[in-house]
Amino acid sequence: MSDRTLLLAGNWKMNHDHLEAISSVQKLAWALEDAKLDDSACEVVVIPPFTDIRSVQTLVQGDKLWLKYGAQDVSQHAPGAHTGEIAASFLSRLGCSYVVIGHSERRADNHETNETVAAKLRAAVEAELTPIVCVGESLQQRQDRTHIDFTLGQLDESLAGFTADELDGLVIAYEPVWAIGTGETATAADAAEMATAIRARIGEKFGTGLAESTRILYGGSVKTANVAEIVASADVDGALVGGASLSGPDFAALCKAAVAK
Ligand code: 13P
User: Fold this and answer.
1) 190 CA to middle of ligand 1, Å?
2) pLDDT of the residue at 209
3) What is the structure's pLDDT at 1?
4) Does the reported pTM lie above 0.90?
């Protein structure tokens, strides 16, 4: 049994405006209380669109909720002339704990490369945000059996130039692209195989301390019905959940199922 805290993070993607966000987080908090879950069992994180974060902050602080929140992306730049960008320091000021970096939808829609991911990671580390760095292969790569080499290559390039100290607290999300929003879930064995390979690679590059402390999540069609099996693997420390995190009560049920594994 590792001493890594189970992490359940809900990536809302471009869903819920700020009013819907307030309602969803309130319902999540009530349902977590009903389920008798608290931060001794797991960490629960919501990752709403940027425009919701201030509202979520006000609710979390006002009601002293134990859940945490984060952002779905961050600029690689310091504050300045970068129209439309959001600086890491702004997210810290809003009380964000986490930031997702290099989600496959951003890699596809916004042409983000591993180099971009490394630059954003640098900005997140400097602002003391905990990064959730996303990696994962396409269906073609899995069929060609190159998925492990490809995903470890993404990892290597995304973490290039960092020291183990800088990466303290790191979270990696393994999200095979073919499993995102498709209803296709990687088997628990597939998720475990990749998580173990990622942990080993972090050990080779950064030492066993960081390998042991890094949390590795699985993401891709995670639901209440399959989460327990996925997080039962020794190297899988939680889940990055899309669709099944949008309803507060449903996400609380998923968290409860994960804790009960
Ligand atoms: P789904 O859970 O909707 O498949 O999304 C997964 C994901 O991309 C989380 O970041």
Assistant:
1) 16
2) 97
3) 52
4) yes
Q: What value, to the nearest 5°, has the Cα angle with vertex 13 and ends 12 and 17?
A: 70
Strand runs (DSSP E) across the chain, as ranges? Answer: 7-11, 43-47, 68-71, 98-101, 130-135, 171-174, 215-219, 238-241
- Residue pLDDT, tens place only, 166-183: 999 999 999 999 999 888
Ligand 1 centroid to residue 10 C-alpha, Å: 8
The response to whether residue 11 sits with its C-beta less than 6 Å from ligand 1 reads yes
Looking at residue 194, its pLDDT comes to 98
User: Of 152, 133, 134, which Cα lies nearest the Cα of 200?
Assistant: 152
Q: Report the residue among 7, 8, 13 best suited for mutation to probe ligand 1: largest number of ligand atoms under 8 A from its CB.
A: 13
Please give the structure tokens belonging to residue 74.
């961050």
Pairing of strands 215-219, 238-241: parallel
Beta bridge partners of 185: none
CA distance linking residue 208 with residue 219, whole number of Å: 24
Left (φ > 0), alpha (ψ -120 to 50) or beta: where does 169 sit? left
Choose between 184 and 78: higher pLDDT.
78
Q: What is the whole-number distance in angstroms between the Cα of residue 156 and the centre of ligand 1?
A: 23
Q: Is 222 in the pocket of ligand 1 (CB under 6 A)?
A: yes
